[in-house]
Amino acid sequence: MTPNRRQQQDGDQHPVVLVLPGGKVSSHRPARAWHLSNLRMRPFTAQLRRSGVRVVQARYRVRGWNGAERSPVADARAALDAITKRNAQARVILLGHSMGGRVAADLCSDPAVVGVVALAPWWPDGTSVNLRSDTPLVVLHGTADSWTDPAASRRKVDELQKSGNSAEWIGIDGAGHFMLRRAATWHRLVADAIARMSRGVAATKMGERR
């Protein structure tokens, strides 16, 4: 079967961005579209779509991470699988905020994932970021964040760099956890990171054709 133009675009030069919202440390209450954790990511989704990027926002069944249950991981995995089921050649960039950054840390070893952008990720000590050596990571963290620890995310990036991974930590001076202060900077840096990762995928595909 010959892929149509949209499938070629999604799976070739323009990766699909899978948005992973934040949540709570512990909660089994149902997650709703109008919760702030979901609404907070809509401006990023809208901006990326305006630039021609295909975006899918994951919906979690419950609001919390919930310890060993890792509740949102299964839902995010289902969203990722749905993308690759639609197009087996799809390449995916994970964009996760807070708890969504922890979900991304779990999913980033998937072969379909070609990049990770983590916004103020919740990476407590002991969190494993299962990054493949060929998968770039960009972490954006407000230096005034009092909800998740910018020092912890920077330590994790340092560890990954020492292991030979392509990882970058960018501090946003004076910004807090919810990305309201210096919002334009958050959006510009997200767009730049995703554009760089997309160009990397396109260059790789071009090399494969030669």
From TrEMBL:
<dbReference type="InterPro" id="IPR050261">
    <property type="entry name" value="FrsA_esterase"/>
</dbReference>
<dbReference type="GO" id="GO:0016787">
    <property type="term" value="F:hydrolase activity"/>
</dbReference>
<protein>
    <submittedName>
        <fullName>Alpha/beta fold hydrolase</fullName>
    </submittedName>
</protein>
<dbReference type="InterPro" id="IPR000073">
    <property type="entry name" value="AB_hydrolase_1"/>
</dbReference>
<dbReference type="InterPro" id="IPR029058">
    <property type="entry name" value="AB_hydrolase_fold"/>
</dbReference>
<feature type="domain" description="AB hydrolase-1">
    <location>
        <begin position="17"/>
        <end position="127"/>
    </location>
</feature>
<dbReference type="Pfam" id="PF12697">
    <property type="entry name" value="Abhydrolase_6"/>
</dbReference>
<comment type="similarity">
    <text>Belongs to the AB hydrolase superfamily. FUS2 hydrolase family.</text>
</comment>
<keyword id="KW-0378">Hydrolase</keyword>
